[in-house]
Structure to design on (262 residues):
């Protein structure tokens, strides 16, 4: 899954893609690099991010989704917490709703997901983006995240979302310390055993900088991002959400070739 942000303030690449044409060109480049899913977002969820209105978010993402869908018929994901944005995005050609709030942001979210009949990604987040990194605490982060994700998946199914349309995401960096993130990645087999495909989004996360202080800028974290992707797939995740598609695809191909040879 390739990350395509059309936001002015995302932590890694905010403001880089300010026009529809530029975003579409970037999407086509990512597909050429090996992306199998495009995840398009119009609101930053970085720590401390300010909210964006649904109208502004729709204005950012819908023209891009429609233009990409006209040129490519692979799966497009809308990265949003707002059901009205998800509805507009699916109408424009998206087929996946990737929600960092696991369909809790609005009382209508579950019903809209069922109505749309699209795939959904349910992510764990402690708190909300503006405050999630203020002293996050858990008694047992792996157990609590696993329990939350099962609860949200059950709520989605009770609302009418088919089980085979649900993917879960532990939410690396969303209300977690570096230690919490590493425990979750080390425990991915447990999450993969819950009965749903698992998405891992650890690309360019601050945890890499905390391990390697020389990786000050987000773009300095390619090696760590690939390491997390390889570790995730080794432990059973179905999808890795990444910024650096070509390099990650190459790493995964080499990993697969070694496995095949063994």
């Amino acid at each position: 899954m390739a990350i395509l942000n059309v936001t002015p303030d995302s932590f890694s690449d905010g403001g880089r893609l300010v026009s529809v044409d530029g975003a579409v060109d970037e999407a086509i480049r990512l597909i050429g690099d090996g992306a199998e899913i495009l995840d398009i977002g119009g609101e930053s969820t970085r720590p401390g991010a300010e909210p964006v209105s649904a109208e502004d978010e729709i204005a950012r993402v819908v023209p891009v989704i429609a233009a990409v869908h006209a040129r490519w018929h692979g799966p497009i994901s809308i990265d949003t917490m707002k059901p009205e944005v998800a509805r507009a995005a699916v109408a424009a050609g998206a087929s996946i709703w990737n929600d960092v709030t696991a369909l809790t942001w609005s009382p209508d979210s579950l019903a809209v997901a069922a109505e749309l009949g699209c795939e959904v990604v349910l992510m764990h987040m402690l708190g909300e983006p503006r405050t999630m990194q203020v002293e996050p605490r858990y008694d047992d982060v792996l157990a609590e995240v696993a329990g939350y994700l099962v609860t949200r998946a059950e709520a989605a199914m009770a609302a009418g979302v088919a089980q085979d349309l649900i993917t879960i995401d532990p939410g690396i960096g969303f209300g977690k310390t570096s230690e919490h993130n590493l425990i979750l990645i080390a425990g991915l087999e447990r999450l993969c055993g819950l009965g749903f495909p698992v998405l891992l989004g650890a690309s360019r996360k601050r945890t890499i900088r905390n391990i390697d202080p020389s990786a000050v800028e987000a773009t300095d974290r390619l090696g760590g991002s690939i390491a997390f992707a390889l570790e995730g797939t080794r432990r059973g995740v179905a999808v890795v959400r990444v910024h650096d598609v070509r390099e990650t695809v190459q790493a995964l191909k080499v990993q697969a070739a070694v496995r095949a040879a063994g």
